[in-house]
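Long-time lurker, first post. I've been practising inverse folding by hand and with some scripts of my own, and I keep getting stuck on stretches where the structure tokens seem ambiguous. Below is the full token string for one chain I'm working on. Before anyone asks, I'm not after the true native sequence, just a reasonable design that respects the backbone. If someone could post their per-position residues I'd love to compare against what I wrote down in my notebook.
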């Protein structure tokens, strides 16, 4: 797989991970805790979990090819824990 394809794949994963995190925080969690409807948390939570793992693996995978230093990698990984963080990574590092 070429570097361009790797970056493009990670870009899509980053965007999807960010969207799934926002859906989980701002739609699924209120449905669960305010209206006692936990079904969406189960569905979105699973998707977010898979995308989160793909995001972390993708960042580690691109660490060397994109010549990121440890500080950049740490910031990119930390952005996966913050709402809107993956969008920042997508714009700044990809």
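-- Answer (accepted) --
I ran through it position by position. Result:
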């Amino acid at each position: 797989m070429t570097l361009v394809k790797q970056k493009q794949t990670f870009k899509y994963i980053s965007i999807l991970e960010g969207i799934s995190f926002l859906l989980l925080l701002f739609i699924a969690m209120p449905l669960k805790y305010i209206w006692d409807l936990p079904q969406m948390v189960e569905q979105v939570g699973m998707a977010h979990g898979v995308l989160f793992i793909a995001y972390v693996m993708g960042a580690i995978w691109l660490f060397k090819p994109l010549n990121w230093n440890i500080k950049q990698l740490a910031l990119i990984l930390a952005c996966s824990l913050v709402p809107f963080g993956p969008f920042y990574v997508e714009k700044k590092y990809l």
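A couple of notes from the structure itself: The CA atoms of residues 29 and 41 lie 6 Å apart. The two ends are 17 Å apart (CA to CA). Happy to go over any region you disagree with.
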